[in-house]
Amino acid sequence: MSKITKLAQITAAAAFAVGAWASTAAAQDLKFFTIGTGGTAYTYYPVGGVIANAISKPPGSRECGKGGSCGVDGLIASAVSSRGSVDNVNAIISGLRNSGFAQSDVAYWAYTGTGTMEGKEPAKDLRTIAALFEEHIHLVALADSGINSVADLAGKRVSLDEPGSGTYVDAKLILESNGLSTDDVTAEALKGGAASEALRNGKIDAFFVVAGYPTGSLVELASAADIKLVPIDGAGAKALTDKYGFFAEGVIPADTYEGVGEVNTVAVGAQWFTSAKEDDDLIYAITKALWNKESRKLLDVGHAKGKTITPDTALNGVGVPLHAGAARFYEEAGLVVSMDDDKSAIMDEIGKIEARIEALREMIK
Length: 365
Prior knowledge:
By secondary structure, the protein is α/β, with parallel strands linked by helices. The chain has a single domain, classed as 3-Layer(aba) Sandwich (D-Maltodextrin-Binding Protein, domain 2). Helices cover 42% and strands 18% of the residues. It has helices at 2-29, 44-55, 85-94, 104-112, 166-177, 192-200, 216-224, 234-243, 280-290, 293-302, 324-332, 339-364, and strands at residues 31-36, 75-80, 99-103, 126-142, 157-159, 186-188, 206-211, 227-229, 248-252, 263-275. Strands 1, 2, 3, 4, 5, 6, 7, 8, 9 and 10 form a 10-stranded mixed sheet that branches. α2 (44-55) packs antiparallel against α10 (293-302) and α9 packs across α11 (324-332). The longest helix is centred in the N-terminal third of the chain and has 28 residues, at 2-29.
């Protein structure tokens, strides 16, 4: 009986040791990766959740193509709510987050230390993973507000969103391009549902949102109140797009929001950024997982904007250098010209120019 008890104890101890070893090994294999998004009522957050799901593959997951994840082995990615573009860029550079979404204009200005980031140290370690989708600037007011243009905001109570958000940056630029400044309005710093609620309760007259349409908070607002989207067009829009190449004129289609007709506005690109310090192999694997055909299914059903996130537009409007890992994937996929190919093309052009010069010399003779 004593021998049996002792054997049982040894067996239990061995089992415990094996279990502890397995747990330690699994923990060592785990990698965590954060994606800074935006407010929960806007587009960044739900899209971030879809992408986090697509690139994750915790230990014990089923195999890709067999009902399991096609993400990166051992990776657990999470979408983190944040104040938006500026906040995400700062968090990436400081090492607080592994990656984040940001507007193309905000990221470029941060990388170069220009535009609205002039005077600040350039964020030279900022790198691009992919361009995702277009974000349209929504200027929202009640249908009977009498606000029919940006100029009509003068003297009104207007929410520009929180400082640290891309919306706040763009709202100020839109005011300026239309001859206004924050001194000409009573500026508030409300976000998402808070801005919608304030509009309904008469505490503000209008608010700005920069998001891919349809954005959840506005869908809810339009179903509960008669609203309008104020056009951002004409000379003001032209001044904006002429001065800042990252803005483009765009349209939000009729019935995107209940009872709201088609409206002209301006748009910027939403892109996914990380730090140059992130491991090349990891970012390569994440980029590859993002564009896996199984991820396509998740993007198509996960959010209305998901269908517009495609490899064909993955490099559209990219003004910040690609991360080395992402660049490797795109080169393998034939989506970018490698440096060697680029040099070869340049040399070919130089050869052609030299041949023309020689031909001209012969003609002169």
